Amino acid sequence: MNLKGRSFLTLKDFTPEEIIHLLDLAAKLKEKKKQGITGNSLKGKNIALIFEKPSTRTRCAFTIGCIDEGGHPEYLGRDDIQLGHKESVEDTARVLGRMFDGIEYRGFSQETVEKLAKYSKVPVWNGLTDEYHPTQILADFLTLKEQFKILKGLKLVFVGDGRNNMANSLMIGSSKMGIHFTILAPKSLWPKEELVSLCLSYAKDSGSVITITEDLDAVTGADAIYTDVWCSMGEEDKAAERIALLKPYQVNEELMKKSGKDNTIFLHCLPAVKGNEVTEEVFEKFADVVFDESENRMHTIKAVMVATLGD
Fold it and tell me: Angle at CA 28, nearest 5°, toward 26 and 31?
């Protein structure tokens, strides 16, 4: 399967077969990494890493993944370039596209990452925007495959802010891969109807069941219960209001037991605010899985770079 030259902006743009290809490649690269084997598919490639928002996993994953495959990563923080300030996004993209072979962007606007892809003429990878976080979903799905050996037919429940980038992206990915996906959230934090309709159309092809509800009993039968911080970056002023609204949706032992299954796992994209969206008890009980998920950011991001840019 040839993905060379493609940008990775949202999972909307990728078929189930292409997503499986990326997951299989990530698993192979992970196994090689464990054996101390690195590659040279990015040898001679220069990669720009644009970060308007700070990061631990995304920055480290792109940096290590690039170096492991022989490339050179260049970190560009918000104060290092003029992106959208003294210079338009379009012009910045055209400059970077002349100097770099690939561009990662982590920031606020999905429109920005799309403009970078349109005007740079090189592969652009979405490291997170306010709307989507597609590289995280690949890491989540690789983790699910490691835990359950399959994806299709699993039941995944996302609990918390049901209209944030994680809920959006998990719904897209799950509906494409045949994972039964539930968003458990107060009605004021449900995803946009337009996105739900799109995912329902994907679900018709994959056999996925998409559910959006306020009912805590919806976790019954869950193979995995997933949560994220209640206030995303840039929403700090809403913290008190969000905590009050989402307190009933905390992932705790009681909620985990509602699954009715002994092998239900807990997932979190990190960083976690323990005591808010998840209790310390639940987090530590599933810490090994959560940090497998975190490590898998590196292997799946490396797979995306290798598949779309590597020789």
Answer: 110
| Residue whose C-alpha is closest to residue 81's, from 112, 51, 111, 115 | 51
Q: What is the pLDDT of residue 23?
A: 98
Active site residues: 106, 133, 136, 228, 269, 297
pLDDT tens digits for 7-65? 999 999 999 999 999 999 999 999 999 999 999 999 999 999 999 999 999 999 999 99
Q: How far apart are CA 300 and CA 236, in angstroms?
A: 30
N-term to C-term CA, the chain: 14
Contact 32, 87 (CB under 8 A): no
**In which region does residue 198 sit, left (phi positive, over 0), alpha (psi from -120 to 50) or beta (all else)?**
alpha
The amino acid present at 190, given as its one-letter code, is W
CB 117 within 8 A of CB 9: yes
∠ CA 260-262-264, rounded to 5°: 80
List Cα–Cα distances, 291 to 76, 150, 288, 296, in angstroms: 27, 20, 5, 8
pTM score: 0.97
DSSP state of 207: T
Question: What are the tens digits of pLDDT across the range 220-240?
Answer: 999 999 999 998 777 778 888
Phi, psi of 104 (to 5 degrees): -105, 140
